[in-house]
Every structure is written in structure tokens, then in C-alpha cells.
Amino acid sequence: MKFITKRIHAFLDYPVAIALIILPFVLGLGTSNPIALYLSVATGIAAFVLTVLTDHHLGLVKVLSYKLHLTVDFLVAIVFILAPFILSFKGIDAYYYWANGIAVLAVVSLHKSEEVSVAALA
Q1: pLDDT per residue over 87-113, tens digit each?
Q2: Handedness of CA 4, 69, 49, 46 (dihedral sign)
Q3: Which whole-number Å values give the CA distances from 23 to 10, 39, 119, in the listed order?
Q4: Cα(122)–Cα(47) distance, rounded to whole angstroms?
Q5: Within 13 Å of residue 66, how many CA atoms lie on the same side as its CB?
Q6: Between 20 and 30 A from 101 (CA), which of 13, 46, 58, 83?
Q7: What span, in angstroms and rounded, lies between the C-alpha atoms of 60 and 43?
Q8: Which residues pair with 4 in a beta bridge?
Q9: pTM (2 d.p.)
Q10: Half-sphere exposure (CA, 13 Å, Cβ side) for 5?
């Protein structure tokens, strides 16, 4: 059952990007590896820019396709899931990335395709 529309996804993008920038400081990430702090902040900044540039109703410049946006989200989810293993994150550092990676993967997986109706083409 896929229920996350392009519109819902757009409303999630900005708060998630801001959370990726702020939460590492609030949670004290970086105890097992300093990269745990910086990876989230850098990803949050990139996610904010990606959202600004995406062709959806909350995009401000609309130069990147929504399909590309979803592909980038999928790749970020995979990186977040694998990062604790590759970079030896432990404890809260690892749990933070696994939780975020699984959440992003769920959002992308539950994305509802936007179908074009015959009436819209007429």
C-alpha cells in the first residue's frame, strides 16, 4: 500500500533537512567517530539544497526532476544504513544512522506513483 504522494514528500523534505543539521548536536553524535556528526550535517545541507532545486510545489528553483530527487533519497538511505558498519559507528551514532536510513528507505518505498488521468490529457 503506497500512500506517500509527491506533495506529502515535499512537506517532509524541509523539516527532515533541518533535523539532519540540528539533531547531531542535540544528540551529541560523534563519540564513536567524529564523522558521525559531520556526515549528518553535510547530508542535511545537501538535502535542503536538493529540495530547493526539486521540481515539486515546494521547490523554489525547480531545475531537478522529482525522479532524481527520489533516487538521491534512496542512495542516502543506503549510505546511512551502511555507514555504521563501514565507519565503525557505535551506540547512538550507529542507531541514529540506522533509524534515519530505514525511515528514508520507507518513505521512498511507500511513494505513490503519480498517474496521469486521461481527463488531464484532454
Answers
A1: 999 999 999 999 999 999 999 988 877
A2: positive
A3: 20, 12, 45
A4: 36
A5: 17
A6: 58
A7: 19
A8: 111
A9: 0.88
A10: 5
